[in-house]
Amino acid sequence: MQQISRMLMKLFQRARSEKPGQVDPRAAEFTLSLLVAMYDRSGTGYVKARSAAAALISLSGDTLLAKYRAFFQFYAVPDGKAALITRSALRSLLTDLNQIPAIVGEGCTLSCVEIAIHDCFHGVLNAAIVEEKFLSWLRSEPAVLLWLPTCYRLSAMEMVSHHARCR
């Protein structure tokens, strides 16, 4: 928790210097509270760095493709020349990401995660998939993660300006 707290302090300090007046001085504290609520429900004082990273990536203002690639980098396992996502790694990612809508009572069940894993690995004979297959599956907007592109689109729409007047 202390490492994550320090990282968040640095992250939001940099954001405040880049965008003065746009970042709440308590942003690091609020974000840490959110991460604790999502990933430390039993009060152990421990949050996995990878889980926290997945949440921060998903809530960032980056493009969907950049988020998807970052998920792959954090959850993939090295396999010689390439990195691969195993079923176990995908289960961890989906479980971690499912905590975000779950915090507001919108999470899905464990069977929903298993269905998504089966869908992602449909027709795959190997124990793991490459980044291309992973990205292709995410672009198909699986139901378990439908909230992610929806939130992205809503966020992107905030920047749209129409020069029309209503009567």
Automatic annotation (TrEMBL):
InterPro entries: EF-hand-dom_pair (IPR011992), EF-hand_dom_typ2 (IPR015154), KCMF1/Dystrophin (IPR050774). GO terms for biological process: synaptic signaling. The gene is Dytn. SUPFAM superfamilies: EF-hand (SSF47473). It comes from Orthonyx spaldingii (Chowchilla). Coiled coil: none annotated. This is DYTN protein. Pfam families: EF-hand_3 (PF09069). One of its GO terms (cellular component) is plasma membrane. Residues 65-154 form the EF-hand domain.
